[in-house]
Amino acid sequence: MTQSLAPRLLGAKVKRVEDPRFLLGKARYIDDMVRPGMLHAAFLRSPIPHGNVRSVDVGPALAMERVRAALTGRDIATKVKPIVCDSTFEGFKSSNYHAIALDKVRYVGEALAIVAADTRYIAEDAIEMIEFDIDELGPVASIAAATREGAPLLHEHWGDNFFIEDLLEAGDVESAFRDAHGVFEINVSNQRHSGIPLETRGVIAEFDSDGVLTMWSATQIPHMVRTGMADCLEVPEHKIRVIAPDVGGGFGPKGHLFPEELAVCQLAIETGRPIKWIEDRREHMLSTFHAREHYHRVKVAYTEEGVVTALDATIEVDCGAYSIYPWTAAMDVEMGLVMLPGPYKIRNFRCEAQSVATNKCPFGAYRGVARTAVCFSIERIMDQVANKVGLDPVEVRRRNLIRSDEFPYMSITGMEYDSGSLIESLDKVCDEADYKAMRQFQEEARSEGRMVGIGVSVFTEQTAPPADKGLPLNFSWDAATVRMDPSGKVVVQVGTHSHGQGHETTLAQIVADELELPLADVRIAFGDTESTPNGIGTFASRSAVVAGSASYLAAVSVKENLTERAAHLLEASVEDVEVKAGRISVKGAPEQSVSIAEVARISYHHPELLDPSMEPLLEAVATYNAGPGTYANSAQIALIEVDAETGKFKILRYLVVEDCGQMINPTIVDGQVHGGIAQGLGGALFEELIYDDEGQLLTTTFLDYLMPGATDIPNIEVSHLVTPSAFVPNGIKGMGEGGAVAPGAVLACAIEDAIKPIGEVFVDRTPLTPERVVRFIEAASSGGGVE
Amino acid sequence: MKPARFEYLAPTSVEEAVSLLVEGGEDAKLLAGGQSLVPLMNLRLAQPSVLIDLNKVEGISSITESEDAVVIGSMARHRAVAESEVVRRFLPLLAESAGHIGYPAIRARGTIGGSIAHADPVSEFPCACLCLHAEFVLTGPAGTRQVRAEDFFVSYLTTALSPDEILTEVRFPKPSPGLGWGFLELARKTGDFALAAVAATVALSPDGTCSEASIAVAGGGDRPLRMVEAETMLKGNQGDDVIARAATAAATSSNPPSDIHSSGDFRRQMIEVLTRRVLTAAWGNARRGE
Q1: 3-class secondary-structure state, position A294
Q2: Is this structure's pTM higher than 0.90?
Q3: Is the ipTM of this complex over 0.90?
Q4: Among candidates A206, A270, A202, which has minimal Cα distance to A37?
Q5: Domains of chain A, with CATH numbers?
Q6: Which of A277, A706, A773 best probes binding to B when mutated, by most B CB atoms within 10 angstroms?
Q7: C-alpha dihedral (A165, A167, A168, A174), degrees to nearest 10
Q8: Count of CB contacts below 8 A, A vs B?
């Protein structure tokens, strides 16, 4: 028997094939592109959070030299339909999100007009000349302001400011609380912040004489954006082409249909000129959808052994002004509702959830939607239980986690966890950290008067999830075409998009393995609705699962075709030939063989040599549907030292155990963990989008909005467990978001632990600023630290 | 985020720059490293009609030493200040403070004169200059004049510079040998604007008591502040107690503002902590004047 000489690529630490392009500055982003006759657009954005638009006069702008066009909400009212994205859940209230505000503005930064000029400079000059008149209404800048008696209404016909109010109840909460050894309540919050990609949003739109609208956009979801555009614009979907070229970071915020995309397209349609709009950083802060702002109140019932038996929770999310496409304003509450119990075996559960409309930027997707907040809550709960029953935080988690032999596990909220290694991950991260030695180090440090703390967290990562959150579309699938050319080399076209995830490498690894080809013979193409199969896009840790599996299935199909043709050429039966290392040969007679390249050449250029039943094309399209999704899991531990006087703390160690099933490329997995932790630490320590009570955003530059830099991120020690997915081909699970989920919970736990010798305190929120940490320490020393 | 229209001028001598400044009147602005002005222009918060670029002006970026002074041209970059042999030898506090300014890219571009003339009350250089008794050479149409750091910083982003003057030189008296020093800053993250920063020097008598002290605070008010009361408390004394009391005095003398990063109360609290630590460090590295 001949063995394949090529080692398997799946699971190998292959260097990223796309890296030279990015590292040498050869990537092509929207702003690198120039179209003939292109104009530059700028938006006038509302400085007023809430008001009725009486008039917007672009006349003075249009009178300026080299200003070519301008549009207001009224100008496009009959041509561009508002973005409407309703949850299918009962009682969800619909909002009309106009590409340019029509009768009302509902947040600072909402577009009031768009101007096109010969340069961006002139366009910005022109913006300053536009005259507008807005009747101000009372600003609704918080959940409290929105739910107060007599609060001004964002969408008058609703009668209140709730997008949706939902309730989930399962098990017997009342009995569980009655029978509990102890009961307590926590009240926690996570601050509004978002993914801040290096490349801001950008759009170029062009409308040709055939009525075809082409839009280049820095988007994660070109196909879904195209559907949304066809819903809103007067251009049918088959005449819309969306191209997402190299995209400089997505993180979720670039996974939406944006009003600016529609406005730029309409301007291109009306002027017949290509229009470019590049978002500046201030616009990004004001108008790229925000995330993360959650408020949770949870009552907890637990046993003497530290086992949590019931949760009775309220989740409130400040969702801003409009429901966004395609995720709706219900996404965070619904996801929070079902994921709150997380990795723990909690069998009695009640949760009220409210998504509240406010005069703030709409609320959208960001790496780890809702899971950062629910992880913070449930982990804070575990730490409280540990304190109350006198257990180590690791031990209390071990007692509550779902055991490996209990998978597949149906959570109390109806989530189907396919597989996992929760306790094993926790044990492994403790081993890697040498937890006992860490505690000993802490004891010694404490005896020297140093403030040292250890924080731990365990969580499940729902990856490649379906559309069971009341979304108006089901996104459990994606598609790939594997197309072999006459030279026997392959282009794989996928419906997902890579903007940092390394798909050009990982998907090629999967396909090259299946087709027994070297990696260099497989190229991955994406980001153009014209040349890729219809698909969904990249978000929710889904691409490895859905695009990886669709690519795999299409490759299997192409391999079958190759084998059939080769068997015919070798005058053997299909069962008697095998594909190895670029050749197809008769089993046991390797001298009777033909190369893949030869079969491909014959297939396309000499089909007469094949059986008449065989088609020349060596190409297959496949879709893959991940059904209920597959669950990865992770455990993290941090060791910190706090400066008790300044509240600054150093992260001495940060350890992660990641179990995402079969890894395609461990280097890329580690990179995703590192990036996720960095963003998670950003949210835990620094990042915050702050509105004042008047609805003005105070954080519109990096002077105000702090991002972590390289010096703020500790060395991250990553190790792995491998629990293959129970059903995904190759045992793959997703993992892109996970790192970002736990750092807030880990650090809150560590800070409480550090402060413990002084007194008890409950860390109830992020970001953990120096001032906040000092106040926690002061509260602990005055004995008033626990609510 | 594109600036409004402006005229760009690039003089090559101080005289030419001054005359352009006079010509340009109130709407003219000087461009040094551009690390504060350019963002303000991009946000259209500053809309100068004339921008006079000092980057091609000769003779105002050198770092030299005379018998009794270290002289730094106003266009010397932060990085040049931080790495200068002369500065490191005579003014280690200044070199240390430079390391806290922003990030390498900012330090490669920003200038000491730009930072001082901008007079952000949380900036490192104004605070260090105040502590080190710097004098600023201002050149205008009538020639030059020298203003002491203490008299230069008026209030938030406001200085003693006349609209027709250019800050051309920063002069530091050479400190006496054995001067103890310290500079500490608290920022929410590395390289970010200080919540508070404290610079201090201490000279010790042969008996170990303080013969001379200088303390300056950034972030304590609308300009960098000298902590005269605290300095007076130290003179003739030694020990942790007096350091602690001086630190408390420094905090009491401060009136820091509240903003999204921190309350004024917390800043005041941090001024006390930093002052105590800086004085302890300065004491530690001061050599007794025997």
Answers
A1: strand
A2: yes
A3: yes
A4: A206
A5: 19-27+477-625 (3.30.365.10), 33-137+197-250+254-287 (3.90.1170.50), 370-468+634-781 (3.30.365.10)
A6: A706
A7: 150
A8: 60
